[in-house]
Design brief:
alpha+beta; four-stranded antiparallel sheet; 2 helices; 2 iron, 2 sulfur cluster binding; iron; 19% helix; 2Fe-2S; binds FE2/S2 (inorganic) cluster; metal-binding; Rieske Iron-sulfur Protein; Rieske_2Fe-2S_sf
């Protein structure tokens, strides 16, 4: 039998006792860093919308949204199918929204751009912070499936959780004290790429 080579590294069981836990710990923190990066820094920017004309459907009467952060769910159409949507009165104008005098509105699709669940208006930011881990001082839109959060004051931008893309906007017009949706932003994610 040849004698052990002193230059060749030799691992014994005691080495494995620290190497394996170190690998597991390093892997966990690597995964955590990657996940934090994805959650916080890979969200698509909201750009000026490109509209595709659609049917003209009632979203809400102005007097149904008498103050800031009032909202109303309504139904629009996508490819002859019903589409859940929401119109929100905001404290400031945003890209793709509509201002009527001093009142500012934004209409968004409620289809989550991650995997298509229906997002909800989260009107209690404190409860929202617990449920969605997204901290803000105003209402936002949250997806109950994987706790994605979208920011109305950034025109529907995905701000937390797995969604990367903003909620598509719906074009609004006002006539006779009523807000109408008249088209969709394209590409209409997640149904279009
Ligand atoms: S489907 Fe909405 S966060 Fe996953």
């Amino acid at each position: 039998m040849s004698p052990p080579n002193p230059k060749k590294p030799h691992l014994d069981r005691r080495d494995l006792l620290w190497i394996l836990p170190s690998l597991v710990t390093g892997g966990f923190f690597g995964w955590l860093a990657w996940r934090t990066y994805v959650i916080h820094f890979t969200k698509a920017k909201v750009r000026e919308p490109l509209w595709r004309a659609g049917p003209r459907l009632r979203a809400a009467a102005l007097d149904e949204l008498p103050s800031v952060w009032r909202f109303r769910y309504f139904e629009y159409r996508y490819a002859d199918s019903p589409l859940r949507a929401v119109v929100i009165r905001l404290p400031q104008p945003v890209s793709g929204g509509l201002s009527v005098g001093e009142a500012h509105f934004l209409a968004l699709s409620r289809i989550c751009t991650h995997q298509g669940c229906t997002v909800n208006f989260v009107d209690n930011p404190e409860l929202g912070a617990i449920a969605y881990n997204y901290r803000t001082d105003h209402p936002f839109l949250g997806c109950p499936c994987h706790f994605g959060a979208y920011e109305p004051l950034q025109a529907g931008k995905a701000v937390y959780g797995p969604p990367q893309f903003p909620l598509p906007r719906l074009r609004l017009e006002e006539e006779g004290g009523v807000l109408y949706a008249t088209g969709l932003e394209v590409p209409f994610r997640p149904l279009e790429r």
